[in-house]
């Protein structure tokens, strides 16, 4: 996880990579792909998209105080009234703009997570984790390559161990056993309770 301070704000590389993953995957969903099942039990691809968009809006609004999701991210309807690519672009831009105002060496920051304020690098990684893992959910559901690069997965895993456990009961499934040949992406997915071999 690297970050730089610049005149226009803080640049969070891990968030840029996660947002790129989500935008790329959503843009490649086929027209008949939105109703397909996903690793998120009970949710279709469209519902995972709505959840991911709502979460990015929530992270942004927690920082800026405005732009809250218009529907509950945890009860997505599955009905996409707007262009999916435009939805993702708007939500990721809002999150990126909000996080650019957070200094890398600043005080702990509040997030939508019920774990209390987090160090800026951990908080932004939580936002990035949400985008990247749901990008993976959509990718595997629509027969796309995994968007989790080794570097991105390793950075997210390093941060995840600092906030995932208190959320395990309702946001993440139990940790899955490791397997021979696991790389950073597989290790991250198993830590989050996802099978890298889904849907096998």
Automatic annotation (TrEMBL):
InterPro entries: CHP03086, DinB/YfiT-like, Maleyloyr_isom, MDMPI_metal-binding. Residues 15-139 form the Mycothiol-dependent maleylpyruvate isomerase metal-binding domain. It holds the Pfam family MDMPI_N. One of its GO terms (molecular function) is metal ion binding. This is Mycothiol-dependent maleylpyruvate isomerase metal-binding domain-containing protein.
């Amino acid at each position: 996880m690297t970050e730089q301070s610049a005149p226009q704000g803080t640049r969070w590389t891990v968030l840029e990579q996660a947002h790129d993953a989500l935008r790329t995957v959503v843009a490649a969903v086929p027209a008949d792909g939105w109703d397909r099942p996903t690793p998120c039990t009970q949710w279709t691809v469209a519902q995972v998209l709505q959840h991911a968009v709502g979460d990015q809006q929530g992270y942004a609004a927690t920082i800026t105080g405005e732009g809250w999701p218009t529907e509950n991210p945890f009860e997505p309807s599955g009905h996409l009234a707007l262009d999916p690519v435009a939805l993702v672009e708007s939500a990721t831009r809002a999150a990126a703009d909000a996080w650019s105002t957070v200094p890398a060496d600043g005080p702990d920051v509040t997030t939508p997570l019920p774990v209390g304020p987090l160090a800026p690098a951990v908080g932004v990684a939580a936002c990035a984790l949400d985008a990247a893992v749901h990008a993976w959910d959509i990718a595997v559901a629509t027969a796309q390559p995994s968007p989790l690069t080794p570097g991105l997965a390793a950075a997210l895993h390093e941060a995840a161990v600092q906030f995932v456990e208190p959320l395990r009961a309702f946001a993440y499934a139990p940790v899955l056993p490791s397997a021979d040949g696991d790389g950073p992406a597989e290790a991250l997915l198993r830590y989050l309770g996802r099978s890298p071999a889904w849907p096998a």
